[in-house]
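Friendly challenge for the regulars: who can give me the structure tokens for this chain first? No prize, just bragging rights.
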Amino acid sequence: MRNSAARLGLLWCIAPLCASAIPAAPSTQLTPAQEAAWREVLRLDSGPQAGTEAPNRFMERFSGHLKAQETALRQFLALTPAEHTFEAKFRLIRVLALRAELESDPTRQEQADALLESLEREAGPQQMAHIAFERISQWMRRNRLPSKEQRTELLAAAREFRDRFPSDPRVPRLLVEVATQFDRDPELKRVLLEDAKKHTRDAALRRRIEDDFRKLGLLGKPLQLKFSDVNGRSVSLEQMRGKPVILLYASGGAQSSLLGWKATNEVLRSWPDVQRVCVCVDDNRSAMERARQEHGEGWIIGWDGMGWNSPLARRWGINAVPTCWLLDSSGRLVSLNAADDLAGQLKALKEARQSP
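First reply, four minutes later:
Bragging rights claimed.
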């Protein structure tokens, strides 16, 4: 769930990574009033649950939820002595940073930065790990499509966190997230995944790592895929050979996915000969149809209603949207991240075809 044009939809993409950075509870005995205020903070932890409404409506609910979280945290802080408020302040930092991005409000980001610096001055060793991790998380939210230099900076920060806090349970998930930035550097991506695999026993994360290894193993190989499109017509990637193909995995229920699809369409206006296939991983037809109507003109759309369990996604370890692949005219997978300078990648394919 990645892409920078998608400022709104990407705010929550790293939420599972960030959530593990939040300390669990104040380390002191609370008064009844403080306890009630803290229960309200915890009640809001689950976040807004995605529904079937349009993504912009979900983002409105998300914004309202963040406001409620900020109110609850400030109420708890007003009732509690400063020496017992690290956990609440830490949560407030994250809420302020998310609101700053969602609302394009630099003042809230400044508040978050100042509060983080204040906590850092008084933090113990374990608390320093939370602060270091939060800095990386905020950097990743701010830099959705990092440059090559920024990716190098991110890699250095992640490895520094791993070396500084080797027993921190967030290390493997962080390495996996950083690996997503190196789809166009398969060898480095493989190294990061191997490192993450060594550090985790989490079954779900290990499955994700295996999915990513599976995708790496497809590079340079011709892909074979047959399915019926939403109109019941038989589709085969093999039938498309002779022209490049964009293979996009998307979801009408994810704003990042829709904006990624829109950005891809903008590039492809200059490349009318490129064939376009989108597999929608929505489990309800209305979300798929909404995405199709907005962005699907000129695309072959595959959808079976099975969501993430669809064989169209599981066979190749697809675990995030948007996922955008590029196949050359012989049907070989040549890029796991066609969204990264798509025009440049298409130009390189054209030049390679024309060279003797």
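DSSP finds 14 helices and seven strands in the chain. The domain at 15-216 is CATH 1.25.40 (Serine Threonine Protein Phosphatase 5, Tetratricopeptide repeat). Your move, everyone else.
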